Amino acid sequence: MFHWKHSCTVLLIGEIAGTKMGLYLDDLVVGQRFETESMTVTEADIIAFAKQFDPQYYHVDPVAAQKSAFGGLIASGFHTLSASMRLFFDLNLWPEAIIASPGMEHVKWLKPLRPGDTIRAAADVVDVRMSSSKPDRGVVTMDHPCWNQADEMILTFRCAHMLRRRTT
């Protein structure tokens, strides 16, 4: 089991009668950007994730990783992707509206995530589409860039998020 050590502020868009109220599909428009807090990833985090999900030598063995093309231990790309999504979902943008994700595309690992790196991410709304067959929902498509502490982009991907509508 691995644990994330990071700080995160939960974003509450509003509160009605003591109930959390977040965004719905109707509240989103192309061009909106949501920025996350940051997270620092340790060597132990990298190794634990890789041992469970991606046990390649440059993810699990710091000594052997020195001889790799990366010159040292790096996180699995799937670890980087998962950490980025964790930061995004920690924003708690739509606690009542989220249904599922119909997919992800254009995943690009641009630079490796290394022990001690601190990452942050954003989510940019690029499309909002109401469902033609189910009027109570739709899909927001977002680009999700992720940067390290040097402001180098290390990951980009596009994700579709199926959300409920506020009105039908």
Could you describe the 3D structure shown?
The chain is an alpha+beta fold and 168 residues long. Helices cover 20% and strands 37% of the residues. It contains 4 helices and 9 strands; from the N terminus they run E-E-E-E-H-H-H-H-E-E-E-E-E. Strands 1, 4, 5, 6, 7, 8 and 9 form a 7-stranded antiparallel sheet that branches. A two-stranded antiparallel ribbon has the order 2-3. A hairpin with a 6-residue loop joins strand 6 and strand 7. The longest helix is centred in the middle third of the chain and has 14 residues. The radius of gyration is 18 Å and the shape is elongated. The N terminus is likely disordered.
Mean of all residue-level pLDDT scores: 89
Distinct helical segment count: 4
Low-confidence stretches: 1-19
Spatial shape: elongated
Helix content bin:
10-25%
Task: Give the radius of gyration.
Answer: 18 Å
What percentage of the residues does DSSP assign to strands (E)?
A: 35-45%
The helix/strand class is alpha+beta
Could you spell the SSE succession in H and E letters?
A: EEEEHHHHEEEEE
Sketch the major β-sheet: 7 strands, antiparallel
Number of strands: 9
* Measured distance between first and last alpha carbons: 42 Å
